[in-house]
Amino acid sequence: MLHLGPQDVVTWNGLLPEVLDRGSFPGGAVEEEVQEKHLGAFRFFAGSTLAIRADPRATRWFEAGADVDGDDLRASEYLSDVFERTGHLEAPANAFADPRAYTHFTAVPAMRAARAQFVSFAVDTLPPESGALRVLDVGCGDGGIVSELLPALLEAGRWDEVASITLLDPSPEMISTAKARLAAEWPGARVEGRLARLEHVASGLSGPFDLAIGSLSLHHMPAEMKGRALAALASSIDHLLLLELDADHDSPEVGSPRLAASIHHSYGWLLAQVLGPGDPDEVARESADQFVAPELVSLLTQPRGTRTEYHMRRDRWLTLLAEAMGPEIRPLGTQTALATPYVDLFALHMGRLG
Ligand SMILES: C[S@@+](CC[C@H](N)C(=O)[O-])C[C@H]1O[C@@H](n2cnc3c(N)ncnc32)[C@H](O)[C@@H]1O
Fold first, then answer.
1. What's residue 39's pLDDT?
2. Tell me: the pLDDT tens digits for 84-119?
3. How many angstroms separate the CA atoms of 325 and 99, rounded?
4. Is there a single domain that holds both residue 293 and residue 320?
5. Does residue 338 share a domain with residue 194?
6. Which of 169, 243, 244 to mutate to test ligand 1, by most ligand atoms within 8 A of the CB atom?
7. 174 lines ligand 1 (CB under 6 A)
8. In which domain, by residue range, is 333 found?
9. Does the Cβ of 171 fall within 6 Å of ligand 1?
């Protein structure tokens, strides 16, 4: 992950008036103070800052950024396209019509690999239990991850059978898809769908649960809210397994160099996976528009407290979880689920001892 040092932050902030007020363009003197390895990220910072102001000079910065980034990081290239289509920084309107777009998003090979790694991490770190499993999936989406996890846990003898599956998600489409899928796969289990956000129901869930999982879902709230929700959940769970993106989107404020640099690497990489190499086909483009653009635009335009994404670095997660979940639930392991030159995904296990 790209980490900007304090001096880089001062430099980038100092260069912004050159870009905004004095009309500097990429390749000019304004970039002499930017470290060469940061050039793509700086151009993304300049382009997105102009795009937020609906300033047409954004396009030149995005295009120059895309030249540096190539096919590995596609945030500047994608935002240049969005800016051309919408005239400012707004997620392109796209009806939730084609289910292939969601399937495409969840099935990109890198994400599949990370999920498979998450499942083996769960099998490796959960202690053998006997009896019937009661599982809670926080932010279940279409239920794909719990659907992969349960057979692996039973096969490895972690539990003997599945007693109940509680699916929690604020999206009605996701809840109904996940519920139908899990009910068909586990006819002997009680499958319950809760249409809610974790932070609103964490203390009132009808547990106890042997296991709670949160795969790419708990980053949707700021640190203080994560802490309160997890503290409320702690008394009704024995184990918590997280899969998260190691990125710095919680504490840095909107418009800051640190936030832009983290977005450039993490979402640039994600877009490269979703769009694929070369010209994206219609499904890939729709997938980026529906599932990546709203997050990207929220991060670039909305202040903390109102935006939708708050990914954190792994060490910050570990500190927050240890503080929130109390002395009885301890870190039982963490593993990189996917390592890339730009961003990592990691798995993390908190569990009750004894
Ligand atoms: C990227 S998807 C991940 C879905 C699934 N867990 C997986 O790994 O495929 C994130 C999910 O979290 C849900 N979500 C967003 N905010 C949430 C919140 N505050 N509480 C619970 N779930 C939330 C979204 O509706 C979405 O289905």
1. 97
2. 988 888 877 765 556 688 889 888 999 999 999 999
3. 37
4. no
5. yes
6. 169
7. yes
8. 126-247+311-352
9. yes
- 58 pLDDT above the threshold of 60: yes
Residue 344, ligand 1, Cβ within 6 A: no
Judge whether 206 lies within some domain. yes
Answer whether 315's CB lies under 8 Å from 249's CB: no
Q: Which amino acid is at 3?
A: H
173 pLDDT above the threshold of 70: yes
Is 172 a member of any domain?
yes
Answer yes or no: is the C-beta of 166 below 6 A from any ligand 1 atom: no
**Residue to mutate (ligand 1; options 217, 295, 296; most atoms within 8 A of CB):** 217
Pocket test for ligand 1, best of 181, 220, 266 (most atoms within 8 A of CB): 220
Q: So what's the pLDDT on residue 94?
A: 60
Quick check: is 317 in a domain?
A: yes
Atom 19, ligand 1: which residue's CA is nearest?
Answer: 197
- Please check whether residue 143 is in contact with residue 137, taking contact to mean a CB–CB distance below 8 angstroms: yes
Same structural domain, 201 and 328: yes
User: Strand pairing of 132-138 and 209-215?
Assistant: parallel
* Residue 234, pLDDT above cutoff 80: yes
Q: Compute the average pLDDT of residues 193-200.
A: 97
What is the total count of domains within the chain? 2
CB contact set of 340 (below 8 Å; sequence gap of 6+): 110, 269
Q: CB-hemisphere CA count at 13 Å for 168?
A: 24
Whether residues 146 and 217 share a domain: the answer is yes
Residue 90 domain-assigned?
yes
